[in-house]
Specification:
Double-stranded beta-helix, globular, alpha+beta
Length: about 280
C-alpha cells in the first residue's frame, strides 16, 4: 500500500498523511512504513492520539517490542520520558543525557532498531526533538575522511553519556553508571542493505588505539559534521503526534525546556534486528 507522505527536509524526516485506523491496520501499511523509515530516518503523523495500548499495537506491526530489558520501561514496555518523579520515580533523574546528541542503547551489544514517541504533557516553551541522519552524514563525508575512519572502533560508556549533564555525580549516580556494560562499536555501521551510517553518540568515550586528544578531536569533528543543518530535522511537538525513528541511522536530542513543566512523552522501543559489522 502506498502511503501519502511529505518530506520534511532534504535529507531526513517525512510526514505520513494517515489516520489511526490506517496505522493500526498492519500488513502492507507496516511494510511501507518500514521502507519509508529506512529511507527518511524519521516519520511523523499528526493528530493520531495513540494511547499506550494503541502505541504498543502499532509498534508490534513494525517489529518486536522490547519488554523489561530496561527497568524504566516496566513490564508493559512503556518508558515515561520525564523529569517528573511522580510519573517516573526511579529514573526521572537520569534523563539529563537526552539534551545531548545520542543513539539509544549503545550499552547493548546491538543498539535497538528504533523507537516510537507520543506526547502526554508538553512544556509551554522549548522541548523540540531534533534528529540527525547519520546515513546522509556518512555519504556526504569526503573520501579522505571515509578512509580515515574505516575500521575504527569506539568505546561507549554510560558515564561518558551522562557526564555532559552531571559532571559531579553522587555515589548513587556513579553506581547507576557502573551498572551498565562498556561496549565497543565500529565507528561506521555497514548495514545488511550495503548502506553505511556513522555510529556516533555522547556515550562514545574514546577511539581504541588512538591518543585521547586525537580521539576527542575526531569524535567532536564527526559529531559536528553529522549535526549540520542539512542532516537535521527539528520536530515541534503537538498533542496527538506520533514520531517513529530509525535508531540505527539517526541520532536525536531534546532542546532545553523547563524540567519542572511536567513534560512527559511515552516511548516504546523496537528490539535490535541487525548486528553491527566489525569494520567499515
Amino acid at each position: 500500500m502506498a502511503l501519502t507522505t511529505e518530506n520534511l527536509s532534504a535529507n531526513v524526516g517525512a510526514e505520513i498523511k494517515a489516520d489511526k485506523k490506517t496505522l493500526l491496520s498492519g500488513g502492507a501499511v507496516a511494510s511501507e512504513i518500514r521502507r519509508l523509515l529506512e529511507q527518511r530516518g524519521v516519520l511523523i503523523a499528526r493528530g493520531i492520539g495513540f494511547d499506550d495500548l494503541e502505541e504498543m499495537a502499532f509498534a508490534r506491526t513494525l517489529g518486536t517490542v522490547r519488554l523489561g530489558k530496561v527497568k524504566a520501561e516496566g513490564v508493559d514496555g512503556i518508558m515515561k520520558v520525564t523529569f517528573d518523579k511522580k510519573e517516573n520515580p526511579t529514573y526521572a533523574n537520569y534523563f539529563g543525557g537526552t539534551f545531548f546528541w545520542h543513539m539509544d542503547g549503545t550499552y547493548d551489544e546491538v543498539p535497538p532498531l528504533g523507537g516510537i514517541l507520543t506526547p502526554r504533557v508538553l512544556s509551554p516553551t522549548g522541548g523540540q526533538t531534533e534528529f540527525a541522519n547519520t546515513y546522509a552524514a556518512y555519504d556526504a563525508l569526503p573520501d579522505s575522511d571515509k578512509k580515515l575512519i574505516e575500521g575504527l572502533k569506539v568505546v561507549h560508556t554510560i558515564e561518558a553519556a551522562h557526564r555532559c549533564y552531571t559532571p559531579n555525580p553522587t555515589a548513587e549516580e556513579r553506581a547507576f553508571w557502573d551498572s551498565f556494560p562498556i561496549r565497543v562499536h565500529p565507528l561506521v555501521w555497514t548495514h545488511r542493505s550495503g548502506r553505511k551510517s556513522l555510529v556516533l553518540s555522547t556515550s562514545g568515550d574514546h577511539i581504541e588505539g588512538m591518543k585521547k586528544t586525537e580521539s576527542d578531536a575526531l569524535l567532536r569533528r564527526l559529531l559536528d559534521w553529522a549535526t549540520r543543518p542539512q542532516f537535521v530535522y527539528q520536530h515541534h511537538w503537538q498533542m496527538g503526534d506520533m514520531v517513529l525513528w530509525d535508531n540505527t541511522g539517526t541520532m536525536h536530542r531534546v532542546l532545553q525546556f523547563d524540567i519542572e513543566s511536567g513534560r512527559r512523552l511515552h516511548r516504546v522501543t523496537l528490539e535490535a534486528e541487525e548486528a553491527l559489522s566489525k569494520a567499515a
